[in-house]
Amino acid sequence: LWKYLTYRYGSEGSIRIYLNLVHVYMKMQQVGYGVYTQLRTQEDLVPTHETLNKLVTLDINDTQ
User: Fold this and answer.
1) Which runs of E-coded beta strand occur in 1-64?
2) Please, which domain of life does this record's source organism belong to (predicted)?
3) What's the average model confidence in pLDDT over 40-60?
């Protein structure tokens, strides 16, 4: 990739393009980590949600 960029765009253009690619890659890493964190949090909350649903259901059934 580097050889092609320097041949096609010269040193300055290649550096600019390469830095832009690195910047996009780093942003995608942040987005990927954010998605992973969100999914992980949701997975961790599922047992809590199920327990709370059972408690609410039991409470409603007990009051009737």
Assistant:
1) none
2) Eukaryota
3) 77
